[in-house]
Amino acid sequence: MSTTNASEFEQLEAALDQGVPAVIERLIVQLREKKKYHHLFEALKLRLRHRMGLPLWEHTPGEQLDPQLRDRYEDGLVEACREVGLLLPCNVVVRAGEGGTIVEAMDPEAAMGMVQNPAVAEVAREAKALLVQALNSLTES
C-alpha cells in the first residue's frame, strides 16, 4: 500500500470514532479530490442508502422497495448522478473555421453510456437536450 493510500485509509479509520456517516463523508471527499467519479457515484449511493436506513450494500433492488421509499430512493439516485455529472469535464470546443466560428460538443449520452445506470442515462439525456438547445441557439443568432 502506498503512503498516500495508507494516509487515506488512516483518515477513514479515524473518522470511525464519529460514526458511519463521518466515514462515508470522508470517503466522498477523498473520491471527489481524486476525480474517481464512478467510485464517487457508488459512495453517494452508499450515503443515500445509509440516510434512508436501507442496507448499505444493495441486496434489495430499488424496484422491490415500497412505492414511497422507492420514489425517495430514485430521487436520491438522480441527485447523485447530477452531483457527479457536475464534476465531469465539459467537453465543448470553440474554434475558428472557414466562414466563422465552429462550436462542437461531446455527446453526453455517448460519454455516459458506459456507466450502464438508468439514472445516469436519464441525466445524460437531459444534458444532451440542453446542449443541443444551446448549440441550436448559436445558429439562430
Topology of this protein?
Elements: H1 3-15, H2 20-34, H3 37-51, H4 67-87, E1 92-97, E2 100-105, H5 108-112, H6 118-140
Antiparallel strand pairs: 1-2
Model description:
- This protein has 141 residues and is mainly alpha-helical.
- It folds into two domains: 1-88; 90-141, no CATH class.
- The chain is built from six helices and two strands, in the order ααααββαα.
- The chain has a two-stranded antiparallel ribbon.
- A hairpin with a 2-residue loop joins strand 1 and strand 2 (100-105).
- Helix 2 runs antiparallel to helix 3, helix 3 (37-51) packs antiparallel against helix 4 and helix 4 (67-87) packs across helix 6 (118-140).
Give the domain tally. 2
Residue stretches low in confidence (pLDDT < 50, at least 5 long) are none
Give, in spatial order, the strands making up the sheet with the most strands.
1-2
Helix content: 55-70%
Beta-strand percentage range = 5-15%
Q: Kindly state the number of beta strands.
A: 2
Quick synopsis:
The protein is mainly α and 141 residues long.
